[in-house]
Inverse folding.
């Protein structure tokens, strides 16, 4: 059996080094403006340092350009794509069809990975992305083991699959979260998630015949 690759997030160059120290085979990271982590301490220089360091110790780096891009974002995307192509990053994670087209033209040597934000929940969807240039799909987090196996068994063998084994399960549909925006006016889909799914909550249930009386359970 092929040994799975252990992939960890890295919000900074220092965090990438720590992830590698504790056994990660690869890390993924992205700049604040083009990934879904607007508070990430990563700029183009940090991406370059992380890639060079990782390759020097036999590890991998995947760069996230996984925002749903507006037209005003594309010049920066093109610039970063050319830089990542030159640095031979091990893959670019994306979810937007327009970004995919840019990566294919500006970073033709870089493997394309489809983000969990793209909500891949079927072999048909995975095959669609593969036909459009993807080498890996990161499956939606709602899938169970049987559904994951079904997708793997019914997609081209050369298409890699990646799954989350730990992390937030966003409210909404896969990574497309609306809870943070609703509660904190911080849109997860623009990289500004307040991690509302990890807050502590009290659940109140009113008694049928006495609406003023209630009880609370901490969740």
């Amino acid at each position: 059996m092929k040994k799975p690759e252990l992939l960890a997030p890295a919000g900074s160059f220092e965090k990438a080094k720590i992830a590698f120290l504790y056994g990660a085979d690869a890390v993924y990271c992205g700049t604040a403006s083009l990934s879904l982590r607007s508070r990430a301490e990563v700029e183009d220089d940090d991406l370059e340092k992380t890639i060079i360091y990782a390759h020097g110790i036999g590890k991998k780096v995947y760069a996230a350009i996984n925002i749903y891009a507006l037209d005003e974002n594309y010049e920066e995307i093109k610039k970063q794509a050319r830089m990542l192509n030159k640095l031979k990053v091990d893959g670019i994670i994306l979810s937007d069809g327009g970004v995919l087209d840019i990566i294919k033209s500006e970073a033709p040597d870089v493997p394309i990975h489809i983000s969990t934000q793209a909500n891949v929940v079927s072999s048909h969807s995975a095959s669609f992305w593969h036909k459009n240039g993807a080498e890996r799909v990161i499956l939606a987090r709602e899938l169970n083991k049987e559904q994951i196996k079904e997708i793997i068994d019914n997609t081209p063998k050369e298409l890699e699959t990646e799954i989350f084994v730990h992390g937030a399960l966003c409210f909404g549909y896969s990574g497309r979260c609306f809870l943070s925006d609703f509660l904190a006016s911080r849109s997860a889909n623009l990289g500004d998630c307040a991690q509302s799914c990890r807050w502590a909550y009290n659940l109140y249930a009113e008694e049928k015949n006495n609406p003023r009386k209630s009880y609370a359970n901490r969740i």
Q: What stands out?
A: The longest helix spans residues 74-87.
